[in-house]
Design a protein that fits this description.
The complex is a heterodimer. Chain A has ten helices and nine strands. Chain A is of the alpha/beta class. In chain A, the strands form two sheets. In chain A, strands 5-6-7-3-8-9 form a six-stranded mixed β-sheet, sandwiched between helices. Chain A has a three-stranded antiparallel β-sheet with strand order 2-1-4, with helices on one face. In chain A, helix 4 packs across helix 5 and helix 5 packs parallel to helix 6. The longest helix of chain B has 29 residues, at about 210-235. Chain B is mostly helical. Classes of the chains: A alpha/beta, B mainly alpha. The interface of A and B includes residues 76, 78, 111, 151 and 155 of A. Chain A: Belongs to the ABC transporter superfamily.
Chain lengths: ~240, ~270
């Protein structure tokens, strides 16, 4: 039985007393990829933030690698949406990936040769080794997303949390992302991906957690992303969504 | 004259470095707020202890502002720009009210707002050097963490960094540069030193190290040019130009020059 990397038990999260997530259960095993599926505003990002210990849970417990989330951050990598970052920022692709080493390098010290090699390898894994010296903002949206995944790989995490990594990503970058995530999974990393793209969930993930403020299903992708459950989670708009998948 | 030049060169290094972080964090308004909130500290310091009270007064006001700004940005109830505008206007008005009670207030007000560059003392030089070293040490030692926080605050928090603590360090550094410059360049014109050096560097490069280097150089060159113009005007033409203002004008001129020769790919 593989280790449980992320365990979520009857978790409720509230902002200003109003619950935004209610009674969520689920888990991500080592070597497994889980899709977090739900419409906009369903609380997907909030659940990821809770797993990082950045949002307090009102009730229930979240365990990351057997520890409280805040104590496990060294072994967890978070990949934000690339388009939340300033494209004008003066920083090279290589420097962005190297940021993944900062926690292990520690305070007051500079990344060494070994750190640079790990970062270069990570960039190679997402297929962008030749863009190392380019400024981050000059890359396409999909390429920027791959650079952020490379940064997460450089952290050498046991759990990866990806927030909508396929949004606005071209086909080439989408394939590169899927390939890289597949490789991480084979190496035993646990991966949680939030997305509203059902076809990608089918393609990339073993299990799905269907969410819209409360949980509508958790289990193997084929059993959870069914017409009935999607109708319950998305309401009337689900037909169009599922048709697109 | 030499003291004034030394003061400007001592200011150029921390100003160039701090302005890089002001640029990448887009903290122009924060910097402007600090320049205004240090003003009442300068006035109170002067009223309480004469010229010797100005530095400690500015220091207290600057540190207090840095803490307040950090707390304000933590709170989700108040929007940042409103809070800062209230702080900026309120503290500045307080300074004006305090200084207006003095009979010689026009002369004093001018000195506090625009500095007295040619009256810089050896003690002020020592203060500027000490403050500059402190700022450089703090920003140098935390450079990689501050850069990460500026680029991707969500990832910084996810990695376990205390973002508010990094913000406090930067806000204090901004305040310290304002404090160091208050008596020579003045609390109002120092905003130029906090923004224009790195803004000039950014026009010429997309690399942080180059931006910082250009920023320091621009601040130093502007210090020399501004002082030289002010001196030449007074000696040759009998015109008395405010030294701090000519330095800022030189800085603006360098910025405009960079705008003309900029490499388009640096900014694109």
């Amino acid at each position: 039985m593989p280790d449980v990397a992320l365990r979520i038990e009857r978790v409720t999260v509230a902002y200003d007393g109003r619950p935004v997530l209610q009674d969520i259960d689920g888990q991500v095993l080592a070597g497994e990829t889980v899709a977090l599926i739900g419409p906009n505003g369903a609380g997907k990002s909030t659940l990821i933030k809770a797993a990082l210990g950045l949002v307090p849970v009102a009730s229930g417990t979240i365990t990351v690698l057997g520890r409280p989330p805040a104590d496990a951050r060294r072994d967890v990598a978070y990949v934000p949406q690339a388009d939340t970052l300033d494209p004008q920022f003066p920083i090279s692709v290589a420097q962005v990936v190297l940021m993944g080493r900062y926690r292990r390098v520690g305070w007051l010290r500079r990344p060494g040769r070994a750190d640079r090699r790990i970062a270069a390898d990570a960039l190679d894994r997402v297929g962008l080794a030749d863009r190392a010296r380019a400024r981050f903002g000059t890359l396409s949206g999909g390429q920027r997303q791959r650079v952020l995944l490379a940064r997460a790989i450089a952290q050498q995490p046991r759990l990866l949390l990806l927030d909508e990594p396929f949004n606005g990503v071209d086909a080439v970058s989408q394939d590169a992302l899927l390939d890289t995530i597949g490789g991480l999974k084979q190496q035993g990393a646990a991966v949680l991906i939030s997305t509203h793209d059902l076809s990608l969930a089918h393609l990339a993930c073993d299990c799905a957690c269907l969410l819209n403020r409360r949980m509508h299903g958790f289990g193997p992708v084929g059993e959870v992303l069914t017409a009935d459950l999607l109708l319950a989670a998305y309401g009337a708009a689900h037909g169009a969504l599922y048709g697109a998948a | 004259m030499l003291r004034a030049l030394a003061e400007l060169l001592l200011l150029a290094v921390p100003a160039g470095v701090v302005s890089t972080f002001v640029l990448i964090r887009r903290l122009g308004f924060v910097a402007d707020t600090v320049t205004h909130t240090v003003f009442p500290g300068v006035v109170i310091g002067f009223l309480a202890g004469g010229a010797g009270g100005v530095f400690p007064g500015a220091l207290v006001a600057g540190a207090l502002t840095a803490v307040l700004l950090t707390l304000l940005t933590l709170s989700r109830r108040v929007t940042d720009d409103t809070a800062m505008a209230v702080l900026l206007a309120g503290m500045f008005a307080l300074g004006v009210v305090l200084v207006s009670r003095r009979t010689s207030y026009r002369a004093d007000l001018t000195a506090f707002l625009f500095g007295r560059l040619l009256a810089v003392t050896a003690a002020q030089l020592a203060q500027t050097a000490a403050v500059g070293l402190l700022v450089l040490a703090a920003l140098g030692l935390l450079a990689k963490e501050l850069r990460l926080r500026a680029f991707d605050p969500q990832a910084a928090a996810a990695m376990g960094y205390r973002v508010w603590a990094l913000d406090l360090v930067l806000n204090l550094s901004i305040a310290l540069v304002v404090v160091a410059a208050a008596q020579s360049v003045g609390t109002i014109l120092v905003i130029a030193l906090l923004i224009l050096p790195a803004a000039t560097g950014r026009l010429l490069s997309g690399r942080l190290a180059v931006i910082t280097a250009v920023g320091v150089l621009a601040a130093a060159v502007a210090g020399y040019l501004g002082l030289a113009v002010s001196y030449a005007a007074s000696v040759t033409y009998g015109l008395r130009l405010a030294g701090g203002a000519t330095v800022v004008l030189a800085l603006v001129a360098l910025y405009l020059l960079a705008l003309l020769v900029r490499r388009t790919d640096a900014v694109a």
